[in-house]
Specification:
The protein has eleven helices and no strands. By secondary structure, the chain is an all-alpha fold. Helix 4 runs parallel beside helix 7, helix 6 packs across helix 11 and helix 7 crosses helix 8.
Length: 211
């Protein structure tokens, strides 16, 4: 497991300049309508791109084929990617806090729960799609899926507000602790199901089911 994490860190290091450049360009473009604090809040989202690139690199260099001939079980190979993703999210969250200190917000503020929830849900959908369809097609499906979710939520808030109130209105009256426990339970269930699907898709890809 440690050796695989080091491999992914090495792959990420080779693209570090590209990641930094892309972040600088995005920050420059978004600075017109976003302040520095809002930009720093989006840093953990970058973990998703880094992990998907690591999976794509494994597929392109046939590392997954090599690993299939080793004693390593599929759940170990896939689980390492999830562990790497969670570690990156934690690291980028810490960097965000450091950035807030440098920006003048002493002590920083906790990462908004909405961003953390979205990042973990995006991870739970992105990895199974990537293992099933590959980096490009899986990425397109991921964008289409989350785009459809955004349209449904935004459209529903304007056109079907009673439905939105029926589905999510209970959150307004729910105690904060109860709401957090339910959200945490939902995230655990979503990531557990995501891991199971990823292992299944990874194994079938190694058997040649998906070409």
């Amino acid at each position: 497991m440690i050796a695989m994490l080091r491999k992914d860190l090495y792959v990420t290091g080779r693209y570090a300049a590209a990641y930094a450049g892309a972040w600088a360009v995005i920050s420059l473009l978004c600075s017109v309508w976003m302040n520095i604090h809002s930009l720093l809040d989006t840093m953990p989202i970058c973990a998703l791109t880094v992990v998907l690139n690591a999976v794509s690199a494994d597929q392109e260099c046939r590392w997954d084929r090599f690993a299939a001939m080793s004693p390593l079980r599929p759940w170990v190979l896939v689980g390492e990617k999830y562990l790497y993703a969670y570690g990156l999210i934690a690291m980028l969250t810490a960097l965000r806090a450091a950035g807030l200190r440098l920006a003048g917000r002493h002590g920083g503020q906790p990462l908004p729960r909405t961003i953390l929830v979205l990042v973990l849900l995006a991870l739970a959908t992105a990895l199974p799609l990537t293992y099933r369809y590959g980096r490009r097609k899986g990425g397109a499906l991921l964008l289409a899926l989350w785009g459809a979710v955004a349209v449904l939520i935004l459209g529903g808030s304007f056109l079907c507000s009673p439905v939105i109130d029926l589905l999510f209105g209970w959150m307004d009256d729910a105690p904060a602790l109860t709401l957090e426990v339910r959200v945490a339970g939902g995230l655990l269930a979503a990531n557990a199901a995501s891991f199971w699907l990823s292992v299944r898709f990874y194994t079938r890809r190694q058997w040649g089911w998906y070409g």
